[in-house]
Amino acid sequence: MHISTVTLLVKDLDRAIEFYTKKLGWEKTMDAPMGDGTRWVTVAPANAQASFYLAQRWPDRPDVKAGGSSGVILEVDDVYQTQKDFAKKQIEFTEAPRTEPWGGWAMFNGLEPLSDVGGCRLKPSGTHTRDLENGDGGNPQQDQERGKKHS
After folding, report:
1. Are 109 and 123 in contact (CB under 8 A)?
2. What is the DSSP string of the chain?
3. Topology of domain 1-57, per CATH?
4. Structure confidence by residue, pLDDT tens digits, 104-144
5. How far apart are the C-alpha atoms of 85 and 78, rounded to whole Å?
């Protein structure tokens, strides 16, 4: 079993597709009409199991609107380097990269303004609660201070 699709509410579907495919380099994995004037559009990083369904509304929840934080967390190898790479693509951060007890952390805008697709957070790959308990928080400097060696 695995997670297949996560719904991400967007205001402008075509701008969201452009953001994920052009700026982040993801693939549009599906774009199909749904019969009621809406489209089923999914985007995902290459070779990913899970994808985002870019929805303009919840059919059964008209009160839910696009905008604000999406609650999505993307894992990257290096939060600080990813922020530098994203800055070259003019992706703005609402929270600059910083080090937390569990490792690096940052939040970026999906599109300008933030309400177009919501924001996503970044965290370093492979950091989990068990890593923190073992002194491996994804931050080599802090881990070295704790006596944990990185290979």
Report:
1. no
2. ----EEEEE-S-HHHHHHIIIIIS--EEEEEEE-SSS-EEEEEE-TT-S-EEEEES-BTTBTT--S-SEEEEEEEES-HHHHHHHHHHTT--EEEEEEEETTEEEEEEESSSSGGGT-EEEEEETT--HHHHHTT--S-HHHHHHTTPPP-
3. 2,3-Dihydroxybiphenyl 1,2-Dioxygenase; domain 1 (3.10.180)
4. 888 887 654 334 444 566 666 655 434 444 444 444 454 45
5. 10
- How do residues 22-53 score in pLDDT, each as one tens digit? 988 999 999 999 887 889 999 999 999 999 99
Q: Closest by alpha carbon to 68, among 10, 115, 107, 13?
A: 115
Query: Taking Cα atoms as reference points, which of 15, 71, 78, 2 lies closest to residue 43?
Result: 15
- What residues contact 19, with CB distance under 8 A and at least 6 apart? 110, 111, 116, 117
Secondary-structure class of domain 67-151 per CATH: alpha beta
CA separation, residue 130 to residues 50, 75, 151 (Å): 24, 17, 18
CA-angle at 38, arms to 10 and 25, nearest 5°: 50
